C-alpha cells in the first residue's frame, strides 16, 4: 500500500465513526461491532485496507471478475440451451396438437404432411444424437445395435419435403408460440381474453416485466413471511416460557394458600371437637347427677362420697403396700430356689402358728366360760 493511502487511512481513523461505519458497510457478513473497531484501531485500519481489494462477500477483485465472467458464460450457455429446449418442446407440442386434431376432425393433407415430416426429422435427429460418440467413448466400443449415424440419416424424409418444412416452419412455429403466449396472457388476466389481437400483442410485450415484478413481489412476500414465521416462533417460545413460569408461580401460591387454609381449618376443627367433647362430658356429668338425685337422697349421696373417699384411700394404701411387697419379692427372687424352699417352709410354719393361736384362743374362751 502506498504512503498516501496509509496517511489517508490514518487521517480517516481520527474522524471518529465515519471510518467505522464505512468498514461495517463494506463487510456486512463479518460479525464485528463498532465497539470492537473502537477498541482495536489497528484492526479497523487493516479492514479498511482490505476493503480496497475485496468485495462484500470476501472475494478478491480479480476472483470476483473471473466469477462474473464465468457467470456470464453460464448464462449464455443456459440461454442457448433454453432456446433449443423451447424450440424442441414447441415442435413436440405442434405434433401432439396435430395428432389430437386427427382424432376429432379431418386434417388437411398439407398440415398432416407437415406434422409427419417434423416428427420424422425429430426422431432421426434424436437417434443420431444418441449414436454420436462422446469424448468419453472409445473407438473400440460398438455403437447401439451396431448402427451408425449415416445409416440413420438415410431414414430422413424426402429432401423436397424437408425444404418445404424449413420454409413454413418459422411461420407455423411463430403461430404456435403466439397462441401459447395468448393462452398464458389469458390465464394471467382472464379479462383480457376477449380483447383485440393488437391490444393483446401490446400487453404481451409487457407480460415479462409484469411477471418479473410479480415474481419479485412473491419472493419479497415469501421472505417477509419467513421473517414473520421466525418472529412468531420466537414469540411463541417466549410466551410459552413466560406462561410456564406463571403456571409454576400460581401452583406455588395455590399450594401455600391451600396449606395455610388447611392448617387454619384443622385448628378450627380441633377447637370445635374439643368444645363438643367438653359439652358431651358436661352433659354426662349432669345426667349422672340427675340419676344420683333420682336414686338417692342427699344424705346418702354424701355418705357414698365419704365411703368412696375412704375406699380410694385404702385402695391407694393397698397399691402402695403391693408395690413394696413386689419390690421385696423381686429382691428375694434373686436368692434362687433355695430361698423359695425356705419361704415355703416359713409360710407353712406361719400357718401352723396361726392355727395354734386360734385354737389356743378358742380353748381359752371355752375355759373361761
TrEMBL record:
GO cellular component: HAUS complex
GO biological process terms on file: centrosome cycle; spindle assembly
Pfam families assigned to the protein according to its UniProt record, in alphabetical order: HAUS4
InterPro entries on file: HAUS4, HAUS4_met
GO molecular function ontology, one term from the record: microtubule minus-end binding
Top-level lineage group: Eukaryota
Name of the protein: HAUS augmin-like complex, subunit 4
Organism listed in the record: Cynoglossus semilaevis (Tongue sole)
